[in-house]
Amino acid sequence: MVKQLDDKLPPLIDHVGWRLWRLARQWKAEFDAGMAARGHGWMAEARGAVVGHLRPGGLSQSALTAAMGISKQAVQQLVDELVAEQIVERVPDPDDKRGKIVRLLPKGIKAIADGNEVKREIEARYAERIGAERLASLNAALDDLAG
Amino acid sequence: MVKQLDDKLPPLIDHVGWRLWRLARQWKAEFDAGMAARGHGWMAEARGAVVGHLRPGGLSQSALTAAMGISKQAVQQLVDELVAEQIVERVPDPDDKRGKIVRLLPKGIKAIADGNEVKREIEARYAERIGAERLASLNAALDDLAG
DNA sequence: ACGTATCGTCAAGCAACTTGACTACATGGA
DNA sequence: TCCATGTAGTCAAGTTGCTTGACGATACGT
Questions:
Q1: Using an 8 Å Cβ cutoff, are B25 and A147 in contact?
Q2: pLDDT grade, residue A2 (50/70/90)?
Q3: Is the CB of B90 within 7 Å of strand D?
Q4: Chain B residues whose beta carbon lies within 8 Å of the beta carbon of residue A141
Q5: Per-residue DSSP letters for B94-135?
Q6: Residues A102/A77, Cβ–Cβ less than 8 Å
Q7: φ and ψ at B88, to 5 degrees?
Q8: Which residue minimizes Cα–C1' distance to C26?
Q9: What is the mean pLDDT of residues B65-82?
C-alpha cells in the first residue's frame, strides 16, 4: 500500500547544502581538535562562541546578544560560566549604569590567539590539498552566495 | 592590567571555516523556509534528520542509528515522534525478531519529494547568482576537501 | 516629570540529546 | 545442544543549551 509510493526517490545526498554542512562540520572538528591540543577544550562548547564574538575593547552583554542572535538570558548563562573559569570578566559600563562590559581576561586572549593559529594551520592544509587558487575561488564563491 | 594584552588581535571572521558555517546556516534557513511553505515545518526540527536518512526500503532502527551518528535512544525518541505524527511506521523485521524496520508513510514520502524540489530551487538560485560553472567548481572543491 | 523602553538578572521550562539498566533474541563455538 | 557473549529495541533519568516569563534598576524622549 505504501510500496508503490516508495519507488524512485532521488538520492538525498547530492546537493550543495549537504556538501556545505559536511565540510563545515569537518572544519569545526579539526578546529576543536587543534584547540583541545592547546588546552582550550572548552572552546568546542557553547561558551566558545561567546569568546569568538568578543573584541579587544570588550562588548556590552546586550551587544553580545545582538551579535550572537540568541536570547540575552542564554548569553548571560554562558558569560556566567566564562567568568567562573576566569576567561572573561564583567565590568560596569561607565556610560550606562545598567550595563556591563564583558572583557577578555588573559586566558581568553590566549585562546583567541591560539585559535587564529589553528585556523591558519587548517587553511594551510586546505591550500595544500586543492591549491591556493582553488581555495581562493572557493572563498570567493562562499562570499558571493552569502547575504 | 589587561589593556595591553587586548591589543592587536587579528580579525576573527576572515577564514574558510566561518564562511562555510555562514553559508551552511543560510542554506538550511532557505531549505526550512521552503519546507515550511509546503507544510513540512517539522522538517526543520531534529526529527527531520531522521526522514532525511531513510531510504525507500526502510531501515532498521540500528542502521538508522549508525547512519546518523547519535545514540540509539535518541533515534528511538525521534522515531516515536514521527510515528505519532504518521510520518513513518515501525514494522517488525522479518529477518530478525528483535529488529524493527522504520518505513516511510505517504506523509513522509511527500516530505522527501517536496524536499528535493526545494533543494533544486535553491541550487537553481545559486547557479543564477554565481553561474553554473562557478557553482560546479564550488561543489568540486567541497568534495575534494572532504574526508 | 513621566511613561516607556532597555540592561542585566533570577527562575522555570523545553528540546535534543546523553548514559545506565533491562528484556528479548541472535550467533558462534565447546 | 547448551551456553557465553553480543546486539536490537525499550524504559528511565540526567545533561546541555537554549527558551519564555517576570522583575528591579536605569535611560530617555516628550
A1: no
A2: very low
A3: yes
A4: 130, 134-135, 137-138
A5: TT-TT-EEEEE-HHHHHHHHHHHHHHHHHHHHHHHHH-HHHH
A6: no
A7: -135, 170
A8: B96
A9: 97
For residue B130 the three cell numbers come to 554565481
Cβ of B72 near strand D (distance < 7 A): yes
A24 and B27 in contact by Cβ < 8 A?
no
Contact residues on chain A for B2, CB-CB shorter than 8 A? 89, 103-106, 109
Residue B5's pLDDT band (cuts 50, 70, 90): very low
- Give the CA-to-C1' distance from B25 to C9 in angstroms: 31
Contacts of B10 in chain A (CB under 8 A): 116
Is A3 a residue whose pLDDT tops 50? no
Is residue B115's pLDDT more than 70?
Answer: yes
CATH architecture of the domain A56-128 equals Orthogonal Bundle (1.10)
B18-129 CATH choice from 1.20.1560.10, 3.20.20.70, 3.40.50.9100, 1.10.10.10: 1.10.10.10
Give the pLDDT of residue A13.
63
